[in-house]
Amino acid sequence: PPSSPCPGDTSVLAGLYGPAEAKLSKELPDRAALEVLLRPKVGLPGVLERSREQLLRQTCEAVVLGVLHPRTAITLVLQVLSDAGSLLSCCLNAACMGLLDAGLPLSSLFCGVTCALDPDGTIVLDPTTRQEQEARAVLSFAIDSRERKVLMATTKGSCSMEEMQQCLAAAQRAADTIFQFYRDSVRRRYSKS
């Protein structure tokens, strides 16, 4: 299974299972049922993991062409190996690489970018855990590869509308680098076979 492109020492492993037969209780008549499970490095998943699973699932559902696999189940398992900051973005990147690697039909790719706003208003991309703790606000975006539009956004702390727009613009610029990483990874993978 693929690992994801992430800042520094944060790493997440993605495993994708399916499309497989869905349990009757989870079966959707018109598309695949997508489940995302986020496993912390130690211990059991808690409230934070559950809320992140929802954000990750919504983002994946926005691009997976599930109508091509109705009445099936797709399960994406994300295992945190190390968390040194920007974890949600790392999970988003691992999720996209997992979907891509599994050959699922996608309308576009997506990537995650985290920004921290220093108390003085400076934007820090891919902040470390310490930078996140010292920040006035931490924003994470899921950005789509076709039009650089926002598929998901979450904010912790306080920032102005203008600062949010500046963070988004910085995240959209950073997304280009991540999409290039995806392309290079896929090219390397398929040039070996």
TrEMBL record:
It comes from the Eukaryota. CDD domains: RNase_PH_RRP46. Its main location: cytoplasm. GO terms for biological process: nuclear mRNA surveillance; poly(A)-dependent snoRNA 3'-end processing; rRNA catabolic process; rRNA processing; U4 snRNA 3'-end processing. The keyword Nucleus applies. One of its GO terms (cellular component) is cytoplasmic exosome (RNase complex). It is found in: Cytoplasm; Nucleus, Nucleolus. Residues 8-105, 109-173 form the Exoribonuclease phosphorolytic domain. Keywords: Cytoplasm, DNA-binding, Exosome, Nucleus, Phosphoprotein, rRNA processing. GO terms for molecular function: DNA binding; RNA binding. Belongs to the RNase PH family. Homodimer. Component of the RNA exosome core complex (Exo-9), composed of EXOSC1, EXOSC2, EXOSC3, EXOSC4, EXOSC5, EXOSC6, EXOSC7, EXOSC8 and EXOSC9; within the complex interacts with EXOSC3, EXOSC8, and EXOSC9. The catalytically inactive RNA exosome core complex (Exo-9) associates with the catalytic subunit EXOSC10/RRP6. Exo-9 may associate with DIS3 to form the nucleolar exosome complex, or DIS3L to form the cytoplasmic exosome complex. This is Exosome complex component RRP46.
